[in-house]
Amino acid sequence: MNKNQEEFEKIEKHLLHKVDENDTFSQKVENDKQLKEDVDLHCVFISGIKNAGIREGIRNIHLKHTKAKNENTFKQFPGWAFGIAASVTLLALIITGYFLFYGEDQSNNTLFAKYLTPYPDAISLRGERSGEVEQAMNLYASGSYEEAVTYFSGIPDQNIYYEDTRFYLSICLLSINETEKAIDILSQLCNNNQNRFFPQIRWYLALAYLKNNQSQKCIELLDQIAEEEYKYSEAKGLIDKLSN
Predict the structure, then answer these.
(1) In 142-178, where does DSSP find H-type helix?
(2) Taking 90 as the threshold, does the pLDDT of residue 211 lie above it?
(3) Positive or negative CA dihedral for 65, 66, 67, 73?
(4) How far apart, in whole angstroms, are the C-alpha atoms of residue 165 and residue 163?
(5) For residues 203 and 190, what is the distance between their CA atoms, to the nearest angstrom?
(6) How far, in Å, CA of 58 to CA of 45, rounded?
(7) By the 8 A CB rule, do 204 and 174 touch?
(8) What CATH number should be reported for the domain holding residue 216?
(9) Is residue 229 located within the same domain as residue 163?
């Protein structure tokens, strides 16, 4: 089995939650940004496709292409021609699978991407900036989330805006796929219903659970959002999508 085929197999097992306990592949996915992007791409057109025939077709194209390369059969069938034929067939299968799946249902990753939007800078709007907080919020506002994480993480807990900035830190973490860390922070913040961002915290924690494929926890939180609270209509719409 060559390297590409082996990686294909591992990604498929990862998406189907069939990775062996001793296999470190899932951990690598969390730590390797490029590998995470590869898995997300596979998730769109493999894990998300319910039609088994389409999925098998994609797999067969991949395996035939690999076999042809190994057996050096390109002498009779030019490599560029095989590549074009395989690509066209693969594209057709992906498009078909997209309409079969996304017409009625959507993956958690897709829903997460649709509903995640950064919360406005409410600290600056209130004129509540200090040096270190200002640097962090400037980076947050510009969409430089990885850099913002560094600055937010450096704000001491003695700072009067520490708890507020933890909320913004969690959004940055969600935006760069550090989901578990975001859940840890949001869960702690959610224990204090007196927090001025409490309704927003609950919404983003629900999205974090969605991203983490914990749909039931996501629904439970969304169901707690009252009609007059933040993102009520979006919460009801997301519940409907997850319940179908």
Answers:
(1) 145-153, 162-175
(2) yes
(3) positive
(4) 5
(5) 10
(6) 9
(7) yes
(8) 1.25.40.10
(9) yes
In this structure, the dihedral spanned by the alpha carbons of residues 18, 22, 24 and 27, taken in order and rounded to 10 degrees, is: 70
Q: Same domain for 99 and 118? A: no
How many independent structural domains does the chain possess? 2
Structure tokens at 50: 């319910």
- d(CA 204, CA 145) in angstroms, rounded, equals 16
pLDDT at 5: 58
Residues 154 and 51 grouped into a single domain: no
Same domain, 51 and 92: yes
Contact residues for 222 (Cβ-Cβ < 8 A; gap 6+) = 203, 206, 235, 236, 238, 239
Q: Which domain holds residue 34?
A: 3-104
Per residue in 21-45, pLDDT (tens digit) is: 556 776 676 677 667 666 666 655 4
Percent of the chain with pLDDT over 70: 56
Convert the pLDDT of each residue in 136-153 to its tens digit: 999 999 999 999 999 999
Considering the domain architecture, whether residues 155 and 233 belong to the same structural domain is answered as yes
Domain boundary, last residue among 61, 79, 104:
104
Q: Are 195 and 189 in contact (CB under 8 A)?
A: yes
The answer on 203 and 118 residing in a single domain is yes
